[in-house]
Amino acid sequence: LLDCNQPLGMENKRIPNNYITASHYIRRGYAHLARLHGNKAWCTRGARDAFLQIRLGTLHRLTAIAAQGSWWDWVPLTPYKVEYEDRNRLKFYKESGREKVIFMESC
């Protein structure tokens, strides 16, 4: 496992574009545009059950998740949950036994 202070590659593109997929996108707001500090963004415009999937390729222990909203447009906060795969089963990230909800902007 990598040192927990090392980014996995969403900003510096170490994670390739084809490892980033999404259930929905609009107006050329493709999934790979969900990278940090880019000049474009992944956009769903409020599609219900929209998700972003990032394949890491190998086992990692995630210790933080960074997200940012769009800088060009004010949009309301949207609730998100983090889901991960454990032994071929999808599980939601929990804190104190409850599914953690994260609020972020969604263009």
Describe what you observe in this structure.
- With 107 residues, the chain is mainly beta.
- 0% of the residues lie in helices and 26% in strands.
- The chain has strands at residues 20-22, 52-54, 77-81, 83-86, 89-92, 94-95, 98-99, 101-105.
- The chain has a two-stranded antiparallel sheet. Strands 3-8 form a two-stranded antiparallel sheet. A two-stranded antiparallel sheet has the order 4-5.
- Strand 4 (83-86) and strand 5 form a beta hairpin.
- The mean pLDDT is 82.
Distance between the termini: 34 Å
* Number of helices in the DSSP assignment: 0
Oligomer: single chain
User: pLDDT below 50 for ≥5 consecutive residues: which ranges?
Assistant: none
Largest sheet descriptor: 2 strands, antiparallel
User: What would you call the shape?
Assistant: globular
Q: How big is the Rg?
A: 14 Å
Number of strands: 8
Which structural category fits the helices and strands?
A: mainly beta
- Binned, the helix content reads under 10%
Order of secondary-structure elements: EEEEEEEE
Proportion of β residues?
25-35%
The overall average pLDDT, rounded, is 82
Spatial strand arrangement across the major sheet: 1-2
